[in-house]
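[Automated response] Your request has been received and processed.

Submitted sequence:
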Amino acid sequence: MGISAQTLKIEELIPQRAPMVLVDTFEGIDATEVSHTRLTVRSENPFVEAGCLTECGVIEHMAQSAAARVGWNCREAGGDVPVGFIGAVSHFIAHRLPPVGSCLHTALRIVQQVGPVSLAELTVEVDGEPIAEGRLKIFLQV
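Generated structure:
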């Protein structure tokens, strides 16, 4: 049956540590193979400027959403959580920057995977409205 997403702290799934943690919750992978994460934007977040999460902060949140998925899969298989790196960001569009207090819901779909390299497609929403989207190429240190 595996582990429950609700039983793990996010720090058990990603290598980042405070204050650089930009995912609050990993909600799991649904039947369509899309994973889901959440983040509430807080004023103490190092990527908050002028009351909003910056574009760099949104991209880092997306990357950590990918890391949480990898960490989840590794934990399910009984392995350790690897370190990953953003290799490329493409097709990134920020429709608007989320203000402090916003709850980001991010959906991630793996488009392609070859060995330690994955191409992920992500959509970030606030209250059901898309605020950002893009693709990340992620390299895992193996």
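Summary generated for your ticket: The radius of gyration is 14 Å. Residues 5-140 form a domain with the Thiol Ester Dehydrase; Chain A fold (CATH 3.10.129.10).
If you did not submit this request, please reply to this message.
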